[in-house]
């Protein structure tokens, strides 16, 4: 099976293709031809009462607490080419995004909503990359190609105790030959905190042929000092104790150097087409007591290919006295993306609401008119 091609340039944009474009949104739930803008009821009905159908009557959906909503059900072969979605920041870690390919009972993608779009901390960070763009204020975009041969099913589960309102549009193509393209997978894992001297696992037990294409880390530091000496390791095919690919440090893997520390400025956020650290959350002297970081690395021009098996882990490592390494106990949440020759893969159990919870004090909770550490009187 040939790899799914991600074209980083415009060399093929002018080529004629015998495909058709469809789009699913609250204005056209099934993407049908001529099916858009026909709604007579929806979240915008009251605002459009003087105008009638065609005037933004159904721009969004409400998802009740504990409910799973079908974002899209697509029959037959095709390829999702763009996803735009937005909701309030309070929901970014309480919504679970899932994608099922070709009628599979298990999802290939199961990732918290915010983490999939490189915003894992519930605090907005602008991301300017080729496959993920996060724009003010919370307009999330994915350009990851998502091909399928028999059908696609995308859902959003609300794990919180309150209802949420979501706006979205999923654009896809039909009519092409997708028989030689691999399926996109995305898995989320969190070590909170990491075990002492035990690497954080990004992926394990992945079997089949494919290629690893992306990493996002929401990294919470729980101690003073530098935290990014740890190496990322890719165990390919027959690798057991030792990996074929071993990095040289966390900041090196994400394209930075020397602690991301620009002299006189300290930690410096950056966002490029293929890698970045778009988020640096600093302590505020009150409830936000620890540093938090968001980093991504897309292997678009340098996919990591495997033929039989894949395992990936990363160390949480700092410094102690005498220039000795210090294993850390940090909060590390990883989103790992890869293409595989099959629609399902071994994955961790679905995270609970407690597994997903972010503790960031006032920046990530609604204003209750009282201390965020206590319920209002």
Automatic annotation (TrEMBL):
Polar residues: bias regions: 17-26
Entry superkingdom: Bacteria
Extent of Low complexity compositional bias: 40-49
Keywords: Hydrolase
GO molecular function: hydrolase activity
Region described as Disordered: 17-51
Entries under Gene3D superfamilies matching the protein: 2.60.120.1390
InterPro entries tied to this protein: DUF2961
Entry protein name: Glycoside hydrolase family 172 protein
Organism per entry: Lysobacter korlensis
Taxonomy of the source species: Bacteria, Pseudomonadati, Pseudomonadota, Gammaproteobacteria, Lysobacterales
């Amino acid at each position: 099976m040939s790899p799914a091609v991600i074209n980083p340039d415009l060399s093929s944009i002018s080529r004629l293709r015998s495909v058709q474009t469809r789009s699913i949104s609250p204005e056209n739930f099934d993407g049908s031809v001529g099916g858009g803008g026909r709604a007579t009821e929806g979240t915008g009905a009251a605002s459009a009462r003087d105008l009638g159908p065609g005037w933004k009557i159904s721009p969004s959906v409400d998802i009740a607490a504990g409910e799973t909503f079908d974002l899209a059900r697509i029959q037959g072969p095709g390829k999702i080419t763009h996803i735009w979605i937005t909701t309030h920041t309070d929901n970014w870690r309480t919504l679970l995004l899932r994608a099922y390919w070709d009628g599979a009972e298990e999802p290939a993608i199961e990732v918290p909503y915010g983490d999939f779009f490189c915003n894992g901390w519930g605090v907005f960070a602008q991301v300017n990359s080729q496959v993920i763009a996060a724009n003010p204020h919370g307009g999330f975009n994915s350009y990851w190609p998502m091909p399928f041969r028999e059908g696609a099913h995308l859902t959003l589960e609300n794990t919180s105790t309150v209802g949420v309102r979501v706006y979205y549009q999923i654009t896809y193509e039909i009519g092409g030959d997708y028989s030689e393209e691999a399926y996109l997978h995305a898995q989320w894992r969190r070590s909170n905190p990491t075990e002492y001297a035990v690497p954080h696992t990004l992926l394990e037990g992945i079997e089949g042929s494919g290629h690893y294409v992306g990493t996002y880390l929401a990294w919470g530091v729980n101690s003073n000092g530098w935290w990014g000496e740890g190496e990322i390791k890719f165990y390919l095919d027959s690798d057991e104790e030792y990996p074929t690919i071993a990095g040289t440090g966390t900041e090196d893997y994400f394209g930075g150097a020397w602690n991301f520390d620009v002299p006189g400025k300290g930690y410096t956020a950056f966002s490029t087409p293929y890698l970045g650290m778009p988020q640096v959350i600093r302590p505020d002297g009150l409830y936000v007591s620890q540093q938090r970081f968001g980093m991504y690395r897309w292997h678009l021009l340098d996919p990591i290919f495997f033929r039989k098996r894949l395992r990936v882990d990363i160390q949480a490592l700092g410094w102690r006295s005498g220039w000795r390494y210090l294993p850390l106990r940090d909060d590390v949440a990883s989103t790992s993306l890869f293409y595989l020759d099959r629609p399902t893969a071994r994955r961790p159990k679905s995270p609970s609401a407690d597994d997903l919870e972010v503790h960031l004090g006032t920046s990530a909770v609604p204003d209750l008119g009282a201390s965020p550490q206590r319920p209002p009187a």
